[in-house]
Design a protein that fits this description.
By secondary structure, this protein is of the alpha/beta class. The protein is about 45% helix and about 15% strand. Helix 4 (about 100-110) crosses helix 6 (about 130-135) and helix 4 packs across helix 10 (about 215-230). The structure holds D-glutamic acid.
Length: about 270
């Protein structure tokens, strides 16, 4: 009979970007089955008011409960920033967000403890990265930069375009100058949005060799492993099963997904969240 540890890990994002976190989870925890849900029909979450993001995240949590997930990862930074505390209180299983793991990655990367956070408007407004970074190092210099042009560019398949480079310059260059927006200039950029790893090359080029660019995928997978182990929920062996679902049409989803995974994803099942 299948035990609790055989149940899948749920991974939630507003769309396709959370697949970057799923990929790392599958790499670090190859024995675990996963169920991914991207709320493609209602993304972007970034500009939405907090109560709406909380309502959508609650609906997703109810769906993951139906899938009998043993743990849920909110791979969406905006959902983590505004809804994690609420859904964590309500859930019967552990819920892990990406903000704290992302902050941990930035603190270990930053030699001068000067971090720039690139994120959606909703994430910046919540202040959650600022708090998470200061929890880890109260003296860290943090500058948050909302980047509302970036998600639409990635979604439009224009991550490598001139427009994307111009937008990245607009957001990143002010953080690189001592005393301009932040004093001192940042030595680490934290990609606080699921879509920004798809712009990593451009961001690294604009930031230059003296700046580390980090995201939360690896440290989130590590946090998942620790929680599974401490609750004896880890499934180390056996054939893992992976399912991917989206709330919107699957064609574009599959296209971006294959860029992230470097291969075609198994069938995307369509889900309606209520
Ligand atoms: N998933 C969102 C995040 O990480 C980005 C896309 C959106 O705005 O929905 O913040």
């Amino acid at each position: 009979m299948a035990g609790a540890s055989d149940r899948p890990i749920g991974v939630f994002d507003s769309g396709v970007g959370g697949l970057t976190v799923l990929k790392e989870l599958r790499r670090q925890l190859p024995g675990e089955s996963t169920v991914y849900l991207g709320d493609e029909a209602r993304m972007p979450y970034g500009p939405r008011p907090a109560d709406e993001v909380i309502a959508f995240t609650r609906q997703a949590m109810a769906w993951f409960a139906e899938q009998r997930c043993k743990l849920v990862v909110l791979a969406c930074n905006t959902a983590t920033a505004v809804a994690l505390e609420t859904v964590r209180d309500e859930a019967a299983v552990p819920v892990i967000g990406v903000v704290r793991p992302g902050a941990a990655a930035a603190i270990s990367a930053s030699a001068r403890r000067a971090v720039g956070v690139l994120a959606t408007t909703g994430t910046v407004r919540s202040g959650s990265y600022l708090r998470a970074l200061r929890d880890l190092d109260p003296l860290v210099d943090v500058v948050q930069q909302a980047c509302p042009k970036l998600v639409p560019l990635v979604e439009a398949g224009e991550a490598r375009s001139r427009a994307a480079e111009d937008a990245v310059r607009e957001y990143v260059e002010p953080l690189l100058r001592d005393g301009a927006v932040v004093s001192p200039a940042v030595d680490t950029l934290l990609l606080g949005c699921t879509h920004y790893p798809l712009l990593r090359e451009t961001i690294e080029r604009v930031a230059g060799p003296g700046v580390r660019v980090v995201d939360s995928a690896a440290t989130t997978a590590l946090a998942v492993r620790e929680v599974l182990e401490s609750h004896h929920l880890r499934r180390a062996a056996g054939d893992a099963e992976h399912r991917v679902h989206a709330t919107g049409p699957s064609d574009r989803f599959r296209q971006v997904a294959s860029t992230i995974f470097g291969e075609e994803l198994p069938l995307v099942g369509q889900v309606e969240l209520v």
